[in-house]
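User: I'm new to structure prediction. If I give you an amino acid sequence, what do you actually give back? Let's try with this one:
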Amino acid sequence: MKFTAQAPSNIALIKYMGKTEVENNRPLNASLSYTLNNLTSFVEIDFHKEDADLNIRWEPLNADLNLSVAGQERFMRHFENLCRGIGLSGDFTIRSTNDFPSACGLASSASSFAALTKCFGDVARKFKGLELSAEQLSQLSQRGSGSSCRSLFPTWALWETEGAKQIEVPYQNLLYDVVVINTQEKLVLSSEAHLRVSTSLNFVGRAERAQKRLALLLSAFEKRNWTKAFEICWAEFWDMHSLFETSQPAFGYMTPETLTVLNLTRDFWHREGDGPLVTMDAGPNIHFLWRQDQSILRVRLKQMIVSKGYNILDPDSKV
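Assistant: Good question. You get back a string of structure tokens that encode the predicted 3D arrangement of the chain. For your 319 residues, that looks like this:
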């Protein structure tokens, strides 16, 4: 018996970095994200036979994905915890893949754990008669990967403590680009980054700064003040990356190439008086969100960046 599910990635504009409870990924502060529906993870679960015990194995859904042993174990452990939570046993094979690079700051763990949790929802319905809502699945997904709880919703998601919820924001159907600086697996994974940032002196007051920016960003959106939204998002990702660079031991994701593109983008904004919302996750790559009416500006900035030798992933071009 086979179950399948898919889920998108998401990009946070107010960041999740720091936890008050590691085991259940309880965040230090609320985060706000936009769902990237064209960056997708796919999960397939085969139920082989009933068994008194719970047996789980992982396989790649295609040859493009090669999870590390630690990544496989984390993925299977999440499914095991979900099954034990409802008293489900049996023999299962989990297969998964992404249609974009993994473990390099493109939130592949968010989409993959969300897809796994959605697939579990189908398993729970079949064997236990459970009907789990998106909010309930979000709470469950959070236990495996905190940011995945935001990928259960189609547009904007707000995550405060236990699971995320969809919220209404005036800007819909945004366009998305990511400047791909490096697709190599990060030396410091996000789970480790969450632990290290607490050693930074800048960590004091981090939650309060993020909460204040969240309120300011939502207000800017309501007033349709795109320039103010850009300024808030810019300050927010720099705040997060400053934690990395001032932790003990210090580490970082930005490269000289990252800084070159950021400076080029900031100069573009100053020159044009308009541009994309800019943010970065825990990785070297740079994310842009554009309004629908910015198509000419979008092409112009992309041409400038590509002319400097950098690659831009445009997920919209896949559809």
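You can read the tokens as a compact description of the fold. Here is one thing that stands out. Helices lie at 69-85, 108-128, 134-144, 190-196, 206-222, 226-245, 256-272, 295-307.
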